[in-house]
Design brief:
This protein is mostly helical. It has seven helices and no strands. The protein has a single domain, classed as Alpha Horseshoe (Serine Threonine Protein Phosphatase 5, Tetratricopeptide repeat), CATH 1.25.40.
Length: 119
């Protein structure tokens, strides 16, 4: 992730994850962890590149269904606490994460994964 925030090479990062062959059983939790780390990133350019990386994992290096589960885990387990730490997070996710995930998931699927305030 550090290298990605510096290089902004999302496809290179996806290839490195593909080479790791992350077992399906760990993909949802890893995807949730990635979203968490990216949501905590303060630099807008790095954050946007990392969100693009996450969206590129869905259906690429990771199973799309596992990424959907990871997205749900993020919003169920982490999102509210992060919003307490950073009151701008809701706005950031609505303008950066949601449009990026629309490339990975259908609007209907994405709307099922998102809390009401992010639709």
């Amino acid at each position: 992730m550090r290298e990605l925030t510096m290089s902004k090479d999302t496809m290179g990062a996806v290839r490195r994850i593909q080479a790791q062959k992350v077992p399906v059983a760990f993909q949802a939790s890893e995807f949730s962890n990635i979203l968490t780390r990216v949501a905590e990133e303060r630099c807008g350019g790095s954050r946007r590149a990392a969100f693009a990386f996450a969206a590129s994992l869905a259906g690429g290096a990771f199973e799309k269904d596992q990424c959907a589960k990871g997205t749900s885990l993020f919003f169920e387990d982490v999102y509210e606490d992060l919003c307490e730490e950073d009151p701008r997070l809701n706005m950031v996710l609505k303008s950066e994460l949601v449009p990026t995930l629309q490339a990975a998931f259908s609007v209907e699927k994405l709307n099922k994964l998102l809390p009401a305030g992010l639709h």
